[in-house]
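Database export, one record per block. Field names are fixed; values are copied verbatim from the stored entry.
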Amino acid sequence: MSGDLGAPPRPAVRTRPTSRRAIRSWVVAGVGGVGFLVAALVLSSYLGATFGVQTALLSLAVAVIPLGIVIPTFLWLDRFESEPTRYLVAAFLWGALVAALLAAVFNTSAVVVLESATDPDAALATTAVLVAPVVEEALKGAFVLFVWWFLRREFDGVTDGMVYAGITAAGFAFTENIQYLAQAYTEGGGQALTATFVARCLLSPFAHPMFTVLTGVGVGVAATSRSWAPRLLAPVAGYLLAVVLHGLWNLAAVSGGSGLVAVYVLVEVPVFLGYVVFVVWARRREGRLIGRFLRPYADAGWLSRSEVTMLSSMGHRREARMWARANAGPRGLAAMRDFQDTASELALLRRRMYHDAADARALAHERELLADLAARRGEFVGMPVR
């Protein structure tokens, strides 16, 4: 823990990052942007050359539809302590561009190698069941590991692992759906396109996110563990479970017919229901954790007991935002939102400190967040603190 919290001081102005840190951030963003652009150009060129520009655009438009179901689910899960938008966009682009492109290269190479030892159908089936799950789950999970290793201040545990994993997997599924939809339309016209849309986009839009979320949970467990064993074994266990579930799903798809229906009804539907229950539990758990780790700040006078209760419940948070808007207008509403986000960040930072998972700047960052809390409170009660 952080020790004596002290009395609430006057709000401090956050210091700007050093020029070296700013330059490094711009360099990383530039390199990442160029990488995403190159991957996008390669994928779009491949899709256009293989299926034609019109078919590729039609498939892209159809593949967007399930994103309207999947993305809001993970944003809903992320409401207590929202991740920076730029990182969520990067997660989606990693899945849709980099992971999808590299997976296509590895999977195609595996098919070519296997065709030298067996017939084409067997090579495709073997790749789908034994190669693709290993490769794809590794590539999608790599982004979650990246955030944990290099952006520890933005990674607070299981919920964040699920969010980054789900958004990355949604991007991967988006690109994969474009290819399958375009192939179906090319081979069977509108009827085949509709059948593929129903099977992939309506009946199983959460397939890839469900697989990769297991890796995210493993990384989240590792991020909040004190001993080395969970930090090493939890991500590996999550990844292996993701590979097994993914491989089972692909096996059913390759088998087709009654086998696919049986796996869908007896395995995928129960797994999906369990997944929904787990997502709801994870969100409620995060609210309880926020309340638990904010109580020491209430004891020290930084927060009131009623504020801790409000910050622990999404329903109470909505009521507080309505009150702030009525009391201080749009600026008060914005201040209340910032107050809530800052309090969540503070609670989860204290949790990392409790688990010895915080970085060297944790204490300074804690003071910055406490000063921000005081400043934002002054704004939404109509008494700006100077």
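Remark 1: The chain has twelve helices and no strands.
Remark 2: Residues 9-17 have pLDDT under 50 and may be disordered.
End of record.
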